[in-house]
Specification:
By secondary structure, the protein is an alpha/beta fold. It is 32% helix and 16% strand. The protein has 8 helices and 8 strands; from the N terminus they run E-H-E-E-E-H-H-H-E-H-E-H-E-H-H-E. The strands form 2 sheets. Strands 5-2-1-6-7-8 form a 6-stranded mixed beta sheet. A two-stranded antiparallel sheet has the order 3-4.
Length: 238
């Protein structure tokens, strides 16, 4: 049985959802320190002239060590309208524009003041739309026994062990700081899932890869997207 653990990202790219689809359980890891200019409160969509731009949910200023779960959304400016305005670039070119805009509104209108909850809701709503089963927990609400952590890769090891899964799956970006020997000693398989980004028709001259799942959903059906998610490679940790 496979488990994946990721920080909550706002409408992340397709590889994040491939990780959900191809594992048995998913944990939103919401207790690490919030990193500014990361993927928790923003992502990329198409802009003008085939360039990518960022859409962002602003957050209130907070101490550097503030955990993700405690970071509040800033409502001092009308960012919702700005964001929705950015998405109108899809109106004349994307066949599923109206449907996806409603999904975005549902997420933006969720009753929360915390960016982690909005990000988690964006993933939940997207999975529902795509027809992907999401069995999940939010780490801060799990009440797992405390365990000592001496290196970054030991969080995933501890959570996987405590939840009694035999395989932990991570995106390829984590290879550099995972020590496979620790996992072998705990009788846990370590795997890295690499999503193969497939081209789809963005109605522009040159394809822009790796954008938010919003971009994919604007142009592709849920069935097409699920098929894309099955195009991946698994590498064993060594």
């Amino acid at each position: 049985m496979k488990i994946a653990i990721m920080q909550p990202y706002l409408f992340p790219y397709i590889g994040y959802f491939s990780l959900i689809k191809n594992t048995d359980h998913f944990v939103f890891f919401d207790t690490p320190q919030y990193i500014r200019k990361g993927w928790i409160n923003r992502n990329r969509i198409l802009g003008t002239k085939g360039k990518d731009i960022y859409f962002t949910v602003p957050v209130e200023k907070c101490p550097r060590e503030t955990p993700i779960k405690d970071v509040k959304i800033s409502y001092n400016e009308d960012w919702q309208e700005k964001w929705m305005g950015q998405l109108t670039i899809y109106k004349k070119r994307a066949p599923y524009y109206a449907t996806i805009m409603q999904l975005v509104r549902d997420v933006l209108n969720c009753d929360t003041q915390y960016i982690s909850e909005m990000a988690i809701n964006s993933v939940i709503k997207t999975c529902q739309y795509l027809g992907i089963e999401l069995n999940y927990d939010v780490y801060s609400k799990m009440n797992l026994p405390l365990f000592e952590v001496e290196a970054p890769d030991e969080w995933a090891l501890g959570i996987t062990r405590e939840m009694k899964y035999d395989t932990y799956v991570n995106p390829p970006g984590g290879k550099t700081f995972f020590d496979a020997n620790k996992y072998k000693k705990a009788n846990i398989e370590l795997e890295f899932l690499t999503q193969e980004i497939q081209k789809y028709n963005q109605r522009i001259r040159e394809f822009v890869p790796g954008l938010s799942i919003l971009d994919v959903m604007m142009f592709c059906t849920p069935e097409e997207i699920r098929s894309m998610m099955d195009s991946y490679k698994i590498e064993k940790g060594e």
